[in-house]
Amino acid sequence: MATQTDNGEILAPSPHQERIVRWIPVNYLIAVRFILGWQFISAAFRRYLNDPSKLDYAAKSNIGHKFSTMVPHSIWPLNHIMSALILHPHMAFDFLIVFTWIEFTVGLFLITGTLTRLSALGAVLLSFGILWGDGWQGVTCVDEWQIGTVEGIAAMVFMFAGSGPWGIDRWLLKHWDGYIHIGFWRIRIA
Amino acid sequence: MHISEAQRAPAETGAQKKQALGMLVVAVVITLFTYQVFHHGLWGKLVSYGKKPDLVLTGTAVTPRTLKLAVYNTGGPGTYGEFTTRVTIAAHGRPIDVWTSHQLALTPAASIQNYYPFQKISAGPNGLIVPLAAKGIVSLPLRLHTGEVLRPKETVTVTVEDVSGLTWTIPETVRP
What we know:
heterodimer, A: mainly alpha, two-stranded antiparallel ribbon, two-stranded antiparallel sheet, B: five-stranded antiparallel β-sheet, 21% helix
């Protein structure tokens, strides 16, 4: 039985592999893409909407404290970078604001399926950054290690799978092949 | 039922298989590597540095008049610190000087040199508060009559005790 997805892909078992589903619609990944995006966009919401004191340099609860607690057992090369950064508190704070906006953009783009492969790369870097820096924390369990590995590897899948039919990319790809050219490289970002 | 060649789903290409296997390898390597590094989950005894405070006292210096106590809290939750309620200097197993919770609580801010600007060591109502990742040197004056007891090159043991009873010790040679 041949079925057609929204994207126009033909899904049909080949006669000798009827029992193995070799192609699944990318729509199946929408749930993962949405909640993965939410993990990042909500980090920005928590800092700008839920609890603005996190981004108030004068407040004792500012995010620089949280950032600096990661340093003791972070691993190379982030241990050196973070340790140097927290010795310059204003620079660290500027970095954290930029980081927050990157999280917001990556989250928004993943949720809406915009330049999905590029935003998934951003999510991979953010997640593995968190894993490298903070993977040792967690008071009762291996919490931060789970967050870093699961988010990073889920994001990695979207670097290859793309947004599928439910996303802005579907419209973008009607007008553009999704590649950018940098020097010798041809990189697919949508 | 007959399915024409045009309708048949395309087979995976070699490149896609390589990508999928590549992702698997990267995922497994990163996951197991960090699991071992952070939690010793594959080999050795399982650890969780985030569970309770862990002070590193490296850099502590003792002179006949002052204890320069270097403290760096490298463990425990980021939201609730380590609370030092007793500091002891002992020589040959005999306590030479002891700073109790009350005395530590009165440590003036000028006696605490913090290394980092965010997480800082401070004096609290019941002793010294050392939040996670706070690092610094706390200068504690020895009482004069014990200062006469300590001689340069003598080996002493500095012990720091948390309110929960956890202790950390470091041997030190008395400097002139």
